[in-house]
Amino acid sequence: MSILIENISKQFGNFQALSPLSLSINEGEMIGLLGPSGSGKTTLLRIIAGLEGTNTGRIQFGDRDVTNLHVRDRRVGFVFQNYALFRHMTVADNVAFGLEVLPKKQRPNKSDIQQRVKHLLEMVQLGHLANRYPSQLSGGQKQRIALARALATKPEVLLLDEPFGALDAKVRKELRRWLRGLHDELGFTSVFVTHDQEEALELSDRVVVMSNGHIEQIDAPGALYSAPNSRFVFDFLGNANVFDATVSNNQWQNGEASLALPEGLSPQDGQVYIRSHEFTIGTEASAQANLPLKILAINPIGAEVRFELEPVGWQSQDVWEIDLTHKYCDQQSFEKGQILYATPKHGYFFAQDTQQPKQISW
């Protein structure tokens, strides 16, 4: 089921939760709504569900205008962060609940309900827990049951509000992989809200980045990361080090630090954004850069080693982070307090008072 959102806006009192925005979601697509708290992503999700009304605009599911339809008539499944399972009901009864409260003309018979519940529990790999109660389940199991319950009525659209936010990192990763596989198998259209960048980039076909009630950028995960279209998107996605650059002697300078101007870029003041993995480091400055940094911490993180570094002789608003491979670090003898020189390979340049970046390389 495709979803078309046109010029939707929402105001709570004097607060503008959503400025007029539009979004087109293809049938079978998984869309991630990503943004900080207060960006409007949950409000948009609730409007799609029919749990909130709109001040302006319209929503269309396929060929149906559902703008003024009650939530029960929209055929959406909703999964909440806190599971919202009924504690006094068994797992099987929780999954069956949505079917049993359907109007009599739409309600399957008891045998069909039992068969569908059994099938859904097998689908979420929890058939052996049918007679248990929610208090007897782990967080990951509860979330799978909540998803099975949402799918029981065969919704045209599945909506998820921070579905894995209450789970630990390992369980979140397992459930993300499982949900993506289930989505691909069943082909339903789904929209989920998250503030977790990794979750959005891993799960989504496209990511909608939101800020202050409007959409900043819509793109596939790879394109979003490699080609952010604004400072906000760059700041929000991934680790970036920012060099405040003032042109002097045909190079960018900041105190005692300097960067060579990339070829083809006219001399301008601004800011250079460099992701943490786009560096080499050494004990001396290079022809491209003189960026002295003092090691504050060396932290192994998975397949990489993250260096936290403090500028020496120049200014930066934040501690810099540089990610290197274990193999490279094993060949060196880095230690806290040591002065190193960083050389960037690629970056993005924002001229003063502009939001559009230019990709640059040295």
Low-confidence stretches: none
- Give helix % range: 10-25%
Cα separation of the termini: 46 Å
Rounded mean pLDDT score: 90
Structural class: alpha+beta
Portion in strands? 35-45%
Structure annotation, total helices? 9
Using only C-alpha atoms, the radius of gyration works out to 25 Å
How does the overall form come out from the CA principal axes? Answer: elongated
Number of strands: 22
Largest sheet: 7 strands, antiparallel
Q: How do the strands line up in the largest sheet?
A: 16-13-12-11-14-21-22
SSE map:
Layout: E1 3-12, E2 15-25, E3 30-34, H1 41-49, E4 56-61, E5 64-65, E6 76-79, H2 91-100, H3 110-123, H4 139-151, E7 157-161, H5 169-186, E8 189-194, H6 197-203, E9 206-211, E10 214-219, H7 221-226, H8 231-236, E11 240-248, E12 251-254, E13 257-260, E14 270-275, E15 279-282, E16 289-290, E17 292-301, E18 304-311, E19 320-325, H9 326-330, E20 339-344, E21 346-351, E22 358-361
Parallel strand pairs: 3-8, 3-9, 6-7, 7-8
Antiparallel strand pairs: 1-2, 1-4, 4-5, 9-10, 11-12, 11-14, 12-13, 13-16, 14-21, 15-20, 17-18, 17-20, 18-19, 21-22
Helix pairs in contact: 2-3, 2-4, 3-4
